[in-house]
Amino acid sequence: MRVLIIGAGILGASVAYHLARKGVEVEIIDEEHQGKATLAGAGIVAPWATAVEGQPEWYGLYAAGARYYADLISGLEGLGETNLGYGKVGALVVAEEKGVLDEAEARLLRRIKDAPEAGDVRRISPAEARELFPPLREGMEAIYIPGGARVDARLLSAAMVRAAVAMGATARNDHVTLRLQDGKAVCVGSDGRSIRADEIVVTAGAWAAQILNPLGLTHPVGPQKGQIVHLRLPGVATGKWPCLLPVGSHYMLAFDDSRVVIGATREDNSGFDYRVTAAGEHEVLGAGLALAPGLASATHIETRIGFRPAGSDIKPILGRVPGIGGLTVGNGLGASGLTIGPFAGKCLAELVADGAAPTALDGFGPKGRG
Questions:
Q1: What is the pLDDT of residues 330-348, one digit of tens each?
Q2: Tell me, what CATH number does 232's domain have?
Q3: Which of 52, 59, 84, 298 has the fewest beta carbons closer than 10 A?
């Protein structure tokens, strides 16, 4: 079997990695869009803290994504990949109002009964919270989640692609299109030649609709713009700081190079607007400094732009496309992509290689033409 994967973000890279582990012949084609969500994303793996309720299928996939990270990291390290951008540094949930924090704590305690990987979740004092995350505003209680983690999506995706290539996959940059031939999806490269494939997996993020449209598919996912601010605190050891998760507000996380990331705007109907805007910068920095005034003296490094593949429904789209032979889609992960992506990629690899969808994908299948 020869499988073509279009798009090498966090999801596509995972599909490629897991297929290669199964000995499947894989070709990865990525156009390397600069606004790709994976390139901009600095993610937090702590699904138990989400305020979203009433979506049991989605939350089950979200939680499974966090649970799978231990196996993913172990597997990559076993192949010699160590620059993964992943760290289990813990997470702090904070809120402006005590009642909101109480509600968040009740949600968390209910969810972690089935999630030992979250660790010993507990309420901590404002002093303890500032000891863990020094720039935090004084007087803020927090809920500490030891099992929370942070991810540099650029590094993790690149590591999965490298591992896939080391196991026999090929990877290249190209602009490809799809067309129908005898009821089956066929991929055509920028040179006009068909690219041989038994199966095609489209994991092209916010650009998936453009790729699927020639097949007569109206794909309900578009770009949601995110502006993400990167700061540096020269000489400060930030690598072990926990992620900061305000209830219903902007997040923060830190990396080993004295870098602190504040994210992010969620701009719908913005199209592929690559500009850093005054309003976006103001929104992110204002929210960040209100919670962590200790960052006021930090150096601004850059503001990254990323386009999340977001639909009107929080649920992602994962599975075979009805009525079109050899076509599978993985898309619509939105803001939860860095948690769900690696596990969803594993599930899609199983679907393509083994012919049967894992139960984790039940309820997430794409619609067909028409």
A1: 999 998 999 999 999 999 9
A2: 3.30.9.10
A3: 52
